[in-house]
Amino acid sequence: MTRSKRLIAEFIGTFWLVLGGCGSAVLAAKFGGDGNPLGIGFVGVSLAFGLTVLTGAYAFGHISGGHFNPAVSIGLWAGRRFPGKDLVPYIVAQVLGGLLAGAVILTIAKGAAGFAIDPTAAGAFASNGYGNLSPGGYSVTAAFLTEVVLTAVFLIVIMGSTHTRAPVGFAPIAIGLALTLIHLISIPVTNTSVNPARSTAVAFFAGSGAVSQLWLFWVAPIIGGLIGGGLYGWLGRDEPAIVGNG
Fold this sequence. Notes:
65% of the residues lie in helices and 0% in strands. By secondary structure, it is mainly α. It has one domain (3-235): Up-down Bundle (Glycerol uptake facilitator protein), CATH 1.20.1080.10. The protein is globular, with a radius of gyration of 18 Å. The N and C termini lie far apart (48 Å).
């Protein structure tokens, strides 16, 4: 597969992840077009993110690997599953795809009378945050730890489910369910990132508060990706057979 096709697949896949996940949070988590509660809440948004990764991985996994996330690309590199020369192009494609999705969500949201983004509100426009911008008011330390640990576990699931000895064809299901669980755990803490492209995609539309805290949602997921990818690169590496001396 040519590099250009792989980059386009990452662009579209990340676009889909942000449109489906963040779009559900902005457009459907609280109110419908007629002002009536829809009630999908945290559970619905968690499932939406999981479904976007599941469907995106089946659609584009055979083309680009279905990363849709700079932390995943970096983690796979750390685990010796991805070449370093492709890291920057992949990350650029992912960020641009996410930003386009953010712009599409905003354009749709503006079609509802009275729509407005409050940049001081926690989770404004599906943004990530800590302190006063955390849905549950969690500290920067709690947010950082949450993002590192959950991204690390996410990489372990990704690498384990795509291992040559894992059941063939089921990886997207495991990965999608893992991301759903990650959101169920951490939406109250950070509104869940584990993906710098997803965070960037909405931060610049959410206001200066989200932008000022964006650093954490790059640094922590990348650290988590390096930990998880490096750990599974060692843990899941095939070892040579032990041969006795006679």
